[in-house]
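During the second year of the project, the team shifted from modelling isolated chains to modelling whole assemblies. The rationale, set out in the original proposal, was that interfaces cannot be judged from single-chain predictions alone. As a representative example for this report, we include one of the complexes processed in the last quarter. Its constituent sequences, exactly as entered into the pipeline, are reproduced here:
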Amino acid sequence: MRALGPGSVSSFLKVILDVVYVALAISIVLIAIGMIVTLLFDVDPALFSNMIRAGAPGGALTGPEIAGELLVGGLYAGGVLAIVGQLRRLFATLTAGDPFHPANVRRLRTIGLLLAALGVLEMVRYPLTLLDAKLATHRDLTPNVTTWFAVLVVFVLAEVFREGARLRHDAELTI
Amino acid sequence: MPIRVRLDRILLDKRMSLTELADRVGVTIANLSILKTGKARAIRFSTLDALCRELDCQPGDLLGFDGGPPVDFGDEDEDEGID
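Output from the structure prediction step:
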């Protein structure tokens, strides 16, 4: 099975990315609606039982705290949505059989920056969710090695694609 | 670019059009135009061979060196194409 071009593995993955993109977009809309609902109305925290941490000193979560959790979840989903959007465009060029399209360099760098942003978000999520007062002793600022390794790999790949784009350009102008 | 391609002068001397030369050499008119206007990055020996054969000239008649600072090809625009 071919890796590039129409009907290849790339086109199959592009279809999957399209589905994931739509699902993420719908999820973000639902999260936004959930945030508005929890902020405006009294919500029974038991509805979000999986968000209530056992042993939390403050007990059940309040509406604003649930909204905070949803905000972090929404930001995370938004970051992943942006990454998937860049991957969709990148895979469109792979499906067209043109992997070293110059725009792919910028797309990979954008993906690297978004991954880094998600890594930072992962580290600071507890203060953002207003749970800080209840979980004051729990500050997870240790970096996720996997995430940051992936960031470096993506930036290196961007440089590889930059060299590929340069060679492609040279080949185009070789008569 | 310090390397000059004197294709237009030779075509004039031989009274040949770019289109006719493109047909004879087997290179597209667009690519020959890139060569003629000095925008080409490189030329294959096979292309140079075909051009010299059809124009009945030497490579030195076709190409010249004007001196000056070397060309810095550097980084190309990375935002080419539609996103």
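Confidence is low (pLDDT under 50) at residues 75-83 of chain B. The radius of gyration of chain B is 14 Å.
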